[in-house]
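Write out the 3D structure for:
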Amino acid sequence: MDVSEIIIPGDTPGTEWRLPVLRFAGRSAKAPKIYIQAALHAGELPGTALLHFLCERLRQAESEGGIAGDITIVPQANPIGAAQSHFGDLQGRFDLNSRTNFNRDFPLISIADRPTLIEELDDCPATDRLKRQLLHLALGADLVVDLHCDDESLQYAYIDEAFWPEAADLAAALAMEAVLLSDGESSAFEEAVGFAWKYEVPGERRSRLPGRLSVTVELRGKRDVDPTLAKKDADGLWRFLVTRGIVSGETAATAFSGPAVPLDNVEILRAPEGGAVLFHRKIGDRVAEGELLATIVTRPGQPGGSIDLHAPQDGLILTRTSDRLVRRRGDLMKIVCSSPSRAARKAGTLEN
């Protein structure tokens, strides 16, 4: 395993950020190359734990000549966000300077323009330098896996329709309970990677990308960071590497059995007013249209001081907020459904 660092100068004198990059050299030029990163949202650590255990297994495979394809791993992809605390709380999702989501505003370029990502970096602020370096690394691979997590959540993934159903092997290997098929219309990291491949010929859009993959994996919730889950997920990602011929090994074939639905089929339950939220159902529950899901206590102790929220249609509760004091229009739940939501949705990802 080769370990190197990318140095990102800070925007004020005397500061800099270090981005460790782990590389395993493959023995076959024909095998796929993969790039895996975790903690782009710096407080989302299940992926970092997964990669810690996966690298143990990869080092063993390397010593036995079992790595066929090049593997590049960035286990902590956001040192800038990891250093941001506000009154003791980590603020790893948004850059406190620009107020931009660390997983948005990645450059949308053709793969032919990959070299330009690391040109004239001295003109870029630290967050842009970080994003350009990460995207440059990823576009050197055939397969890209961005490891995230939700708040309280089942295991699921965002996968561009251009990679489906070929990517069902990843969903099966990681025992995902749902797949959300995206339209690739945002500037999030995994969609910027897909954009570069789709527009390999500038101005011409490819709708299918065989042999390629760029995916955001949501490894359950923020608090699901423990050795048992991390080792289980590392085993799952190892199975995917075997399936794709990146490492040598045998693994039992499995099939993805969960729902795979467009983002339009995801109902987002939002708070109509602020208050204390009382949940009646939990993640993983299947609910029927009209079923009571949550109560918002808006004026405690007063007549009519609460609001009941019901399921807009049948579905599977995929995520739930861990907050119990919620703001008006705050997201409470995501529900995976078989039919499109009647609520309007902007193109791109579900959240900011």
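The first helix runs from residue 46 to 63.
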